[in-house]
Specification:
By secondary structure, the protein is an alpha/beta fold. The protein has 3 domains: about 90 residues, Arginyl tRNA synthetase N-terminal domain (Gyrase A, domain 2), CATH 3.30.1360.70; about 280 residues, Rossmann fold, CATH 3.40.50; about 190 residues, Isoleucyl-tRNA Synthetase, Domain 1 (Orthogonal Bundle). Helix content is about 55%, strand content about 10%. It is built from 24 helices and 15 strands. The strands form 4 sheets. It has a 5-stranded parallel beta sheet with strand order 7-6-5-11-12, with helices on both faces. A 4-stranded antiparallel beta sheet has the order 1-2-4-3. A 3-stranded antiparallel beta sheet has the order 8-9-10. The longest helix has 25 residues. It starts with a helix and ends in a 9-residue tail after the last helix. About 5% of the residues have low confidence. The protein binds one RNA strand through helix 2, helix 14, helix 15, strand 15 and helix 18.
Length: about 625
Amino acid sequence: MDIISQIKENTKKAISELYQHEIQPNDILVNETKPEFEGDYTVVLFSFVKTLKKSPDALGNELGGLLIIKYPTLFSGFNIIKGFLNLSVADGYWASFLQNNYSINEFGQKEKTNQKVMVEYSSPNTNKPLHLGHLRNNFLGWSISAIYKANGYDTVKTCIANDRGIHICKSMIAWQLFANGATPETTGTKGDHFVGDYYVRFGSEYKKQVEGLQATGMSKEEAEKEAPIMKAAQQMLIDWEAGNPAVIALWKKMNSWVYAGFEETYKKIGSDFDKTYYESDTYLLGKKLVQYGLEQKVFFKKEDGSVWIDLTADGLDEKIVQRKDGTAVYITQDIGLAVNKYEEYHCDESIYVVGDEQNYHFKVLKLICQKLKIPAADHIFHLSYGMVELPTGRMKTREGNVVDADDIVDEMIHEAERKTKEQGKTEGFTDEELKDLYEMIGIGGLKFFLLRVDPKKRMLFNTEESIDLHGYTATFIQYAHARIKSILRKERESGVETLESRIGDQESGVSCKESNRDKPGINFLLPLEKKLIINLEKYPAIIEQACQDMSPSLIASYAFDLAKNFNSFYAEHSIAKAETPDKKELRLQIAQLTATTLKNSMALLGIKVPERM
RNA sequence: GGUCCGGUAGCUCAGCUGGAUAGAGCGGCAGCCUUCUAAGCUGUAGGUCAUUGGUUCGAAUCCAAUCCGGAUCACCA
């Protein structure tokens, strides 16, 4: 049990014993003691003062007194300031925590829960390349899945390819009209970018046609409807749903280009999926469910043939679920997908990582699923994240105000290379090792930058800041890790007294010798030593919190804090030349567990950490 | 207009199930490499926590109103 839970539990027992008054451990507020006061953890007494009819001082004295008598291995002292009971935790407790954990490579990993959770993320449209917004989505989804895994869940990572619909037809029409048979191969263009170019081309042509029609006296609204290229796209969607072979063939060809491009990007950024769904498969099931919903009277048909659901009783509006021409709308396929997912995996929870611009959509989707009595309906959760904005404003593909995913990834890696060369510390690295290091720093930096902000909040992406390698960045943490590894390596190499027996071997998992918690060097912790151990002890609780809040930013913030504490410690105390052999051992253990924890926490963000840099 | 989300240091963000004098990073200023990697460390300046009321022992945190910003309310996805 973590220390805070133990304090709550023991305080509850003490209050019960002293005053025959029962409270829940979770009603007790325990904080870390502010640095300006003596003690490690603080119990806030105010809330009990009234019910127990005691003065804060009396209450604190009685409570603190009993706690150190009953739990002498846990508490070494206390003091009371105003209504705060500051408890000092015994150094022996920290020493034994360290002993028990420093050689555990998977420190923080929770027991299996037998719960299965699905995380859908990425959800690309197959008509244009990925941009910065997709990257936030991908990193978030991947990380959430990793965090669930660390909490003992089985996870299924899925991707839904929005591979059909009017937007795809737009790229297709534009290619037919303007490409003269060009392909990614003939032009030497990455497939997703190639197709995206035609999507943009559609937009400009459409605009031209609308303006042309308006010049003939047509209203803007009418012109937008009547523009030939738009009508052609709409006709193409109908042909597609009818299975027109030529249209299907073109569609397959263009999508295959896009997938090849996506694959390259996913591989580079480390996104992977256990299952990819295709809207072109799920929309049919969606349409079946529309029929079912009509029979069940969940949906109703309007005179023109379009199908709707009335959600006014739930405080929403009427929502269309199928067009009058019988084609599926966006939500149609999502209903099918929800059923598909459940039938295939029977997950306990189904998370959709999708931008907050779709909050309304998911509210409606969940309601519809519930009304259709789809088994998984109640377990649909929309992990809504904020948009990524640029200093120049919101990203809009058609206006060219976008940061392309491939471009920014390459830029980050190049910057990492440039800065690394500038540092000049990579003598003896092979070309392969250098390439790995540049990617670790570059891609890690990008991931950290996008994940360090609370997912719910929209964020500003400033390129200057994102390529910074100082301060609150992945590089800072990677650097701390590399420094620790360097120390451990040297100790192992020079190990007169076989270091494996002392610090263990992380790779082989060989463990330590028996407890030496009674050694004097370990029972007098210096402030910076203790601070680090306290910091390390928190890690399992942080993993739980990050899962509950579905927030990788908590992990980022924790890892940074730990690295920072280590750096302060490193600057102040020598590990290799510690005052005594016991101190050296203690510090090696702290260093090792810190390295493990930095590595594990960064892994939850999808960020690798180097042995040297 | 309805609904939802947000407003904390010059900038980017933590803190929000109410608790001690509101914290980081960047940027500014001043220091630290004969010592385990200076991609680092230390110190310092910088705040009406949008505004106004309320709830109470105590409010950045909860409630209400107002102001400002954003999202959404499509036979787009």
